[in-house]
Each structure stands twice: as C-alpha cells, then as structure tokens.
Amino acid sequence: MDSKNNSTKDVYKVLGLMSGTSLDGLDLACCTFKRTAAGWTFSILQAETLKYTPAWQKTLATAHACLGEDLVALDVAYGHFLGQACRTFLGKHKLNVDFIASHGHTVFHQPGQPGKGFTFQLGSGQALYAAAEKPVIYDFRSLDVLYGGQGAPLVPVGDKHLFHEYDVCLNLGGIANLSLDVKGKRLAWDAAFVNMGLNYLAGKAGKAYDAGGALAAQGELHAGLLKSLSKAYAPLRAKKPSLGREIFEKKFQPLLDKDTIPLHDRLHTFTVAAAREVGDAILSSVGNRVPSVLCTGGGAFNHFFMSCLLDHCGDRASLIIPDETVVKFKEALVFAFLGVLRSRNEVNCLKSVTLASRDSSSGLIVGAV
C-alpha cells in the first residue's frame, strides 16, 4: 500500500527496529520526532536490545543457505517474531505508536552485480503487521537498488537531518560507515569490516564478542596478516562498494582462518587494520580541517578499537562518543525516522550516497500511517 501525504503533521511517535550483521540482537527504540522551523528534533523514549537465543542466532547466520519455500517460511516466521517482540515491548512500557519502522535482517545484499542487483531483508512486513497489530513500514533498500543504487548506506539521511552539528558521523557496527556533507551534498560509504570480523574471531574463543577489545589488546601485531588485510581492502578503498557478508566471507574470512597465527594476534591485527581503514577514510574526506566525529554503534564500546583509531588519527580529528542510548540505538532511531519520511512521501534515500539514478522515498507500507 502507499500512503497519503502527511506533510501537515509535525509530531510522530515511532518504534524503530534494527537487526545488524553482527547478530547481537534486535534493537527496539521508541522515538518521537518533531518538525520545527529549524528542522527535525528527536528524543528516544525507551530502547532495549532483545538478545537472540542461540537458535535464532544460528537460524539468522545460516539463512542465506535456505532454499525456496524454506526461505519464504523463515521470512514469515521472523516477521512474526518481530511483531511479537514489538507487542511485548510496547506493552511492557505502556507505549502507543503511530507505526513500526523495521529494517529487517539482511540475508542477501548484491546490488549492481550483473544478472543480480538485489537486496533482501528477512522479516515479512505483513507478518509483523499481523502480529503487532500496528501499521508497518519496511523494505527500505530494494527500490534504491532497482534504481541502480547500492541500497546502502541509509543512515546518512538521519545524519543529515538529526545530527547535522557534527562534521562526520561514524557508525561502528558489523561494518563501519561514515557520512558527511561536502559542498552541500551528503556523501557516505562503507569503510571497513569491524564487529563482523571481531565477532567471528571471538566465536573461535567461545565468546559472542570481544568485550571492550580485551582479547585483542592481549595480542600482538602480525605484520604478514596486516599486509594481507590491507591488500584485501585496497580495491574496496578505490571503489567504495556497499560491504556485506558476501565480500567478508570471500575476501576476509580466509585470512582470519589462518590458525598458524595465534587467535589473540589475529584479533589484535584485524582491529588495527580496521581502525587504520576507518581513520584514513575520515582524514582523506575532510581536507585540512580537524573534524568533529560522532562515534556510535557497538564498536564505540570497544576500548581497544577506539584507542587504535585515536592513535591513528592523532590530533587531526576530534572523536566524540555521545550518551550510551544514542551509541547503542542510533540505527534503530534512524530507521524510525526513515519511516517518518516515507510516511510523508519525502526523500529518505539519497542518490548522492547510494549512487542510484534518483533520490527516492523508499519503503513498503502495511496499514494506514
């Protein structure tokens, strides 16, 4: 369904959902947005992360291997799971919302590839709507891909409207991406794999993640692995593609599987390599300025990664970590905001960021918003 233009409405209450590539869990953030003469303002009313059970972690991690009707069934099952999670969250906090904006969980992301050019986020919006009994906006990436874009990153639209006081917005999730305005145009790109690789390595130590980067800090830099990682990043540095699981598994995972290198050293070296890629991406984009860099996402809590990034940037950048709620839930917040823009039929996907042929108001709507 499409929506009527709600441009006369100035205040929205939305539940944003985000499930990232690191499989940490489902982020839920109930947010209010207000349109003022000076632009948009926001507040996060309640937010929490619903940790995935081991069964859901395994299911989502292997979803790309599902065939045919099994993938369709999982799409419905996960949509139902999302809807039930929303009902529980809203009931627990006695909240009501205008609608739910769901990112879903990315299973396939192959934009711009010959004979492919698609993206798929698991989590049927219809099933979510049926379970939550609230209007739903979902599938924010597909239209942009069909317009020839990368379908990512999408968060820069939120950066532009909600965090414009910062020179650079850096998100440190499974994948690190950054966005900034250059001569009035928003630009953004994926810079490196962060938690996707760190969590993969931590799993070899029987841990879900390396808390604070403690394991990595115990290791030593392995020059050979660092050189190999830098070489793997080289073509990505030049082309700035949208990074996803497929690239990680093909180009980086084999390097991390070299068990002749101690695990702590692999963690240490991968962290250093990622921090250097992210730091270079920041510094090469701002010229001679000393930019204020907003750092959010789970990687901002990785003390060792942040120390490596600070060491690499030195006094050439000012790294700013906001309050913990914004750090943890910025992506869920932004997808809630993308839903607001979609409900208003306003641009929520920028061609300057995704390289699509046009800007778009992307997302499928179920129910009346």
Can you walk me through this structure?
Keywords: Kinase, Transferase. One of its GO terms (molecular function) is kinase activity. Its EC number is 2.7.1.170. There is one protein chain. The chain folds into 2 domains: 11-152 and 352-366, Nucleotidyltransferase, domain 5, CATH 3.30.420; 157-326, ATPase, nucleotide binding domain (Nucleotidyltransferase, domain 5), CATH 3.30.420. The chain is 42% helix and 24% strand. It is built from 13 helices and 12 strands. It has helices at residues 54-61, 68-92, 125-132, 142-146, 156-162, 195-203, 214-218, 223-239, 245-256, 263-285, 303-313, 324-343, 351-354, and strands at 11-19, 25-36, 39-51, 99-110, 118-122, 136-138, 168-172, 175-182, 185-193, 292-296, 318-320, 364-366. The strands form 2 sheets. Strands 1, 2, 3, 4, 5, 6 and 12 form a 7-stranded mixed β-sheet that branches. Strands 9-8-7-10-11 form a 5-stranded mixed β-sheet. Strand 10 (292-296), helix 11 and strand 11 (318-320) form a beta-alpha-beta unit. The protein is globular and about 55 Å long. The chain starts with 10 loop residues before the first strand and ends with a strand.
Keywords:
phosphotransferase activity, alcohol group as acceptor, Nucleotidyltransferase, domain 5, kinase, 13 helices, 42% helix, 2 domains, alpha/beta, 369 residues
Give the full name of the CATH homologous superfamily of the largest domain.
ATPase, nucleotide binding domain
**SSE topology string:** EEEHHEEHEHHEEEHHHHHEHEHHE
State the total count of DSSP E strands: 12
Mean pLDDT: 94
In the CATH scheme, the class of the largest domain would be Alpha Beta
CATH topology of the largest domain: Nucleotidyltransferase, domain 5
| Share of β-strand residues | 15-25%
Uncertain residue segments: none
EC number: 2.7.1.170
Enzyme class: transferase
Pfam families: AnmK
GO molecular function, one term: phosphotransferase activity, alcohol group as acceptor
